[in-house]
């Protein structure tokens, strides 16, 4: 598998939200050409002691890269839009962390904060072995809740970006919101990869194309 394909597989939400034209910051990171990204990615092996350390990783990896990519794609973006892009990148990175807990553990990376794992009485061996229980579900729900709040804060970006990018961002936000809500509610979370039922796909698509309809729906996705 090429580095670009491997990156897309591990970061499906980040690459859904933002295209990767050749030479862009996201494309360079995907090909392993960004030294800062490589260093931050390598540091993940040590895990995170607390939520502050986790958020630092989310900002260094997802947040800063999303901000740089948006500026590359939309040079006229203002400071507020770039700040929203950083928040979006953080939320997408956190969502991907939850989706790939088991896969990351198999690669030697336990990414949830250790203090939260102690609080919810989750052992590292559970994540390594993919053993679901109520404690792990509560931990996943807690982390999903944090990501949802950040995602909702970035929603205005889906109203201000240029049209094609705006639609792409809005769809990625809504789909990520759907995934995070599933992580928060599904009794088998976090070891799930939720699929969009056709009816839910159409509902979210309608919200992506017509953001004014968001008030008619209370669940599944961000308010974007």
Spell out the helices and strands N to C: HHHHHHHHHHHHH
What's the total count of β strands? Answer: 0
Proportion of helical residues:
55-70%
Class by alpha and beta content: mainly alpha
Summarize model confidence as the mean pLDDT.
92
What is the overall shape?
Answer: globular
Low-confidence stretches: 213-220
Number of helical elements: 13
Please indicate the percent range of residues in DSSP E strands (runs of 2 or more).
under 5%
Give a quick account of the main beta sheet: strands, pairing sense, barrel closure. none
User: What's the gyration radius in Å?
Assistant: 17 Å
First-to-last CA distance = 35 Å
In short:
This protein is mainly alpha-helical and 224 residues long.
Folded structure, characterized:
The chain is mostly helical. Helices cover 67% and strands 0% of the residues. It has 13 helices and no strands. It has helices at residues 3-10, 12-17, 25-30, 35-43, 51-73, 79-99, 101-106, 114-119, 124-129, 134-153, 157-160, 163-185, 198-209. It is globular, with a radius of gyration of 17 Å. Mean pLDDT is 92; it is low at 213-220.
Annotate the secondary structure layout.
Elements: H1 3-10, H2 12-17, H3 25-30, H4 35-43, H5 51-73, H6 79-99, H7 101-106, H8 114-119, H9 124-129, H10 134-153, H11 157-160, H12 163-185, H13 198-209
Features:
13 helices, 224 residues, globular, mainly alpha
């Amino acid at each position: 598998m090429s580095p670009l394909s491997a990156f897309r597989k591990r970061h499906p939400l980040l690459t859904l939200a933002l295209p990767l034209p050749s030479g862009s910051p996201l494309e360079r990171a995907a090909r392993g050409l960004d030294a800062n990204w490589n260093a931050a990615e390598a540091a993940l092996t040590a895990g995170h002691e607390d939520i502050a350390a986790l958020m630092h990783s989310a900002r260094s990896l997802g947040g800063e890269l999303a901000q740089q990519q948006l500026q590359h794609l939309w040079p006229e973006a203002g400071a507020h839009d770039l700040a929203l892009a950083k928040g979006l990148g953080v939320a997408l990175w956190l969502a991907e962390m939850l989706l790939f807990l088991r896969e990351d553990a198999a690669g030697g990376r336990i990414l949830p904060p250790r203090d939260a794992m102690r609080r919810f009485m989750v052992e590292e061996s559970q994540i390594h072995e993919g053993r679901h229980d109520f404690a792990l579900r509560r931990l996943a729900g807690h982390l999903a809740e944090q990501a949802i709040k950040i995602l909702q804060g970035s929603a205005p970006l889906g109203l201000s970006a240029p049209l094609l990018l705006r639609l792409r961002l809005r769809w990625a936000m809504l789909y990520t919101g759907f995934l995070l809500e599933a992580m928060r509610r599904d009794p088998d979370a976090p070891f799930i990869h939720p699929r969009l039922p056709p009816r839910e796909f159409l509902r979210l698509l309608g919200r992506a194309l017509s953001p004014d309809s968001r008030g008619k729906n209370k669940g599944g996705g961000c308010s974007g």
